[in-house]
Design a protein that fits this description.
The complex is a heterodimer of chains A (about 200) and B (about 700). With about 200 residues, chain A is mainly α. Chain A has one domain (about 20-205): Cytochrome c oxidase, subunit III, four-helix bundle (Four Helix Bundle (Hemerythrin (Met), subunit A), Up-down Bundle), CATH 1.20.120.80. Helix content of chain A is about 80%, strand content about 0%. Chain A is built from six helices and no strands. Chain A has helices at about 20-50, 60-65, 65-90, 95-125, 135-170, 170-205. Helix content of chain B is about 65%, strand content about 0%. The longest helix of chain B is centred in the N-terminal third of the chain and has 36 residues, at about 110-145. In chain B, strands 1-2 form a two-stranded antiparallel ribbon. Chain B has helices at about 5, 20, 25-50, 55-65, 70-100, 110-145, 150-175, 200-225, 240-270, 285-320, 325-340, 355-385, 390-415, 415-425, 425-455, 465-490, 505-535, 575-580, 605-620, 625-640, 655-670; strands at about 595-600, 650. Chain B is globular. Classes of the chains: A mainly alpha (about 200), B mainly alpha (about 700).
Chain lengths: ~200, ~700
């Protein structure tokens, strides 16, 4: 098979035996992302059924601070942008510092996103918009929190990747891992766009 | 430091073992007795391991292995351990109902509720699921000509997570007790307001943690089937079992998330006071019912599809014919997988939807019976004019055919919302789902064990003991569960702690008798195993093909070497091995042997199992330090582990050659045995083929 097609051009692994292995792993990760997407989809659906269940407590107009949300969106999309450059530099340049630099941009941006999001959570807490208050707030905290938890997990993963690149350089295995991490990272962006439009924009529209 | 800082809300009063001494009664004797049996049983195993010096063997050969065959065997072993508990509970439950006339039963009503909840949870999640996962583990790589799963370590981790779930349910027997809301654990009854715990918490964490394991199993199997098939094996040249396994895997990937979401939301409600499913402040318990059954209905097919796969392989092999209508069977399987996502609402027709919604789901439910019917006809057509050997697998098949069809028809009856409304929540439902799961799934598993046990261990199971056991299962099932259809129609509500109508009594007695026959049948399995082990020399089939099999796993010695195949086979047709035999050229020596790389053993699965068991236990009992330590330890372990190159073992080509040539040599020295002598000592696993390739 390896003689005929370059199955995973995104990694530029060449035509070695390792390619089939990388193909299997990336495909497996796609399947995982699919399953995770179902999880998010269900939490979105639950949020949808609970959008009106404010039980007299704070509603969407109280918890939505569009400035903060816009900032978070910019930071998270910026992080994805940085990650794309990390992937491209890994493919074309094969210089570990270049890739690490872009990973650092992606990580800083995502960390800032989490900080701004945490400030939002703190504000909600102070205005009494806690998940114990109503079904709507439960679903809001769970959905936004689930996404935030994914981003935080991704940051831990990125830390591990950084350490591994420092230690091993851009080996085939590391390239395959960075590619999978990229899938995860862009996937979280797409989920955020869902949250941005369905939870916050639709909430105040 | 307070005691609650260390032990959370756990106290001496939660120790079920001591209940019988604190307040002696039949009720506490049963619950404490069960707890003691478990504790002493576990202690006996530990003592045996120590005295026999088997710890190293257990650790090196089993707990740290990533060999899919051994992982499969461990899943099935776990299934049997848990089944012992499930069957014991079943017998106690039938005894309870036989004495429940006008409330005279010998257990408390709480205890009864706990029994039906644990029985369902154990049987579905920790008996049926490990059985099918074990079979898929064992068979998929062998049938598609691969050396292992796509992700061998993840496979071991899945087993660890399943073990975690089982461990938590078992711990609940001795500490604190399980929940009382049935295996579906509907809130708000299982919410913090009505049941502060720990029962529902045990349920949540055992289901959620083992659910991750099942999802990863599905992912692993699907990727293995998609990407690791031997060259030449197109999708329509795959063995039927692999098709059913693929559909089950797809269902696992998509159907487990709803269960996880439902479980975690329930946990948030219970631990942190969220309002997903509560009565007040905007909670909505219908969301739980929908989420649960979005998982729950595909789950039914997750369980039954691999059993269909086993029955398909069984009919073709034991009727010595090619499977009639392979493509229809594949299409039927796929259709079932797809439609199974569109029928979940039939589990709660009575919970307030509009009639048009009920009608839509009723129609979808009736439609799903069509592909199932196709399968029954496919099997019948395969048996038609076949040279059937009426051995143990075929006895199970016969029982399955008759009983499962009855169960299927009762399902079609239930698909009609108007009728469903009448029998809803009665014993009729209990009869129906036992009728499809026991003769459908469990008979399939036991038939499969008779077929593939010789593959795994190199000797056949004793035929007469096996047949007697199979008949006990069939008779026991019919006596236990068919009467429940009648009492259901007479209006006996399921799960009720007592009944007032003396008309139910005769049925209850028949059912109780049946339960004891089922208990005998369960013991029969171990008697069969015992007799077979004692006669293993005369039952030995080391050459690997005792039944004149059709698929690639039979083209290996029994048990297969850790690398499965000396070289990856080249496949050119369906039933590849049968074709080679019919053409007179099976067992070809490879031209060249190469070194084989296999993944090295790892303790990852055990680390996951120990840490997640600690996590689940800590969250159940509010032991926060332990929860934090377990979660941190788990993340840290994988963080650090990712820095190390995963080691491989290399099997030298010369060793592969030695093993393979010794086997082929032995095959040449052995006289092939024809199917009339399949069950006598002449069968050493080299079947003479008179297989008709055309149907």
């Amino acid at each position: 098979m390896s003689q005929e097609t370059n199955v995973h051009p995104g990694m530029n692994l060449g035509y070695s035996d390792g390619e089939h292995e990388a193909e299997v792993k990336v495909f497996g990760f796609w399947v995982f992302v699919m399953s995770d997407l179902v999880t998010f989809g269900l939490v979105f659906a639950i949020f949808g059924t609970m959008a009106g269940a404010t039980a007299g407590g704070p509603g969407p107009e109280d918890v939505t601070d569009l400035k903060s949300i816009a900032l978070q969106t910019a930071l998270l999309l910026g992080s994805s942008f940085g990650f794309s450059w990390a992937s491209l530099s890994m493919k074309y340049h094969n210089q570990r510092w270049r890739t690490l630099g872009w990973l650092a941009v992606a990580a800083t941006s995502a960390l800032s996103f989490l900080i701004v999001e945490a400030i939002d959570f703190r504000d909600w807490y102070h205005m009494g918009a806690v998940p114990q208050r109503s079904g709507y707030l439960s679903a809001l905290w769970a959905l936004v929190g689930l996404h935030g938890l994914h981003v935080a997990g991704g940051l831990v993963w990125m830390a591990a990747m950084t350490g591994q690149i420092l230690r091993y350089g851009l080996t085939d295995q590391i390239k395959s891992r960075v590619t999978r991490m990229g899938l995860y990272w862009h996937f979280l962006d797409i989920v955020w766009i869902g949250i941005f439009s369905m939870v916050f924009l639709a909430g105040v529209a | 430091m307070e005691m609650t800082d260390i032990f959370g809300r756990l106290s001496w009063a939660d120790l079920v073992l001591l209940d019988v001494f604190r307040s002696p009664s039949v009720d506490t004797a049963v619950s404490s007795g069960a707890a003691w049996i478990m504790v002493l049983g576990a202690a006996a195993v530990l003592v045996w391991l120590t005295v026999a010096g088997r710890w190293g063997w257990l650790w090196r050969d089993w707990l740290t292995t990533v060999d899919h065959k051994k992982i499969g065997i461990m899943y099935i072993t776990l299934g049997f351990i848990m089944m012992a508990r499930g069957i014991a509970e079943g017998v106690v439950m039938r005894s309870y109902q036989a004495t429940a006339y006008q409330g005279g039963a010998f257990l408390s009503e709480e205890h009864w509720a706990e029994l039906f909840s644990t029985h369902g949870t154990v049987m579905i999640f920790f008996v049926a699921m490990p059985f099918i996962t074990g079979f898929m583990n064992y068979l998929i790589p062998l049938q598609i000509g691969a050396r292992d799963m796509a992700f061998p370590v993840l496979n071991q981790i899945s087993l660890g997570l399943t073990g975690t779930g089982a461990a938590l349910v078992m711990i609940s027997l001795a500490l604190g007790g399980f929940e009382t809301g049935g295996w579906t654990a509907y809130p708000p009854f299982t919410g913090a307001d009505f049941d502060p715990g720990p029962g529902p918490d045990y349920w949540v964490w055992s289901i959620v943690l083992s659910g991750f394991g099942s999802m990863f199993s599905g992912l692993n199997f699907a990727v293995t089937i998609y990407k690791m098939r031997a060259p030449g094996m197109d999708y329509l040249k795959m063995p039927v079992f692999c098709w059913t396994a693929l559909c089950t895997s797809i269902l696992l990937i998509f159907a487990l998330p709803p269960l996880t979401v439902a479980g975690l939301m329930q946990a948030l409600d219970r631990l942190l006071g969220f309002h997903f499913f509560t009565n007040d402040l905007g909670g909505n318990m219908m969301n739980y019912a929908n989420l649960f059954w979005m998982f729950g209905h595909p789950e039914v097919y997750i369980l039954i599809l691999p059993a269909y796969g086993i029955f398909s392989e069984l009919t073709a092999t034991f009727a010595a014919k090619r499977l009639y209508g392979y493509r229809s069977l594949v299409m039927a399987t796929m259709s079932i997988a797809v439609i199974s996502f569109g029928v979940w609402l039939h589990h709660f027709f009575t919970m307030g939807q509009s009639p048009s919604i009920n009608a839509a789901f009723g129609i979808a439910t009736a439609i799903i019976a069509v592909p199932t019917g196709v399968k029954v006809y496919v099997w019948m057509a395969t048996l038609w004019r076949g040279r059937i050997r009426m051995t143990t697998p075929m006895v199970y098949m016969t029982g399955f055919f008759i009983l499962f069809t009855i169960g299927g028809f009762s399902g079609i009856i239930l698909a009609n919302p108007a009728i469903n409304w009448q029998v809803h929540n009665t014993q009729f439902i209990v009869a129906h789902f036992h009728n499809v799961l026991l003769p459908g799934l469990i008979f399939g598993i036991f038939a499969g064990i008779h077929i593939w046990f010789p593959k795994a261990y190199g000797f056949r199971l004793h035929e007469r003991a096996g047949t007697i056991t199979a008949i006990l299962w069939i008779v026991g099932f019919a006596m236990t569960f068919l009467p429940l259809y009648a009492v259901g129609l007479l209006g006996y509500p399921r799960r009720s702690a007592a009944f007032d109508d003396p008309a139910f009594l005769p049925y209850m007695y028949v059912s109780l008798t049946g339960a004891f026959i089922l208990l005998a049948a369960f013991c029969g399995l171990f008697v069969t195993l015992w007799i077979s082990i004692r006669n293993r020399d005369s039952l030995a089939v080391p050459l690997g093909d005792p039944w004149d099999g059709r698929t690639l796993e039979w083209a290996t010695p029994s048990p297969p070497p850790p690398w499965n195949f000396p070289v990856i086979p080249q496949v050119s047709s369906l039933d590849a091995f049968a074709k080679e035999k019919a053409e007179g050229k099976p067992y070809v020596q490879p031209a060249e042997y190469r070194d084989i790389e296999l993944p090295a053993p790892t303790s990852a699965g055990m680390v996951v199992m120990v840490s997640t068991t600690a996590l689940g236990f800590a969250l159940t009992w509010w032991i926060w330090w332990l929860a934090a330590a377990a979660a941190f330890g788990l993340v840290a372990y994988f963080f650090v582990r990712s820095f190390f190159e995963y080691p491989h073992i290399v099997i030298p080509a010369i060793e592969v050659q030695r093993v393979n040539e010794a086997w082929i040599e032995a095959l040449h020295l052995c006289t092939p045995v024809n199917r009339d002598h399949e069950d006598d000592p002449r069968n050493r696993g080299h079947a003479a083929t008179d297989m008709a390739i055309a149907s």
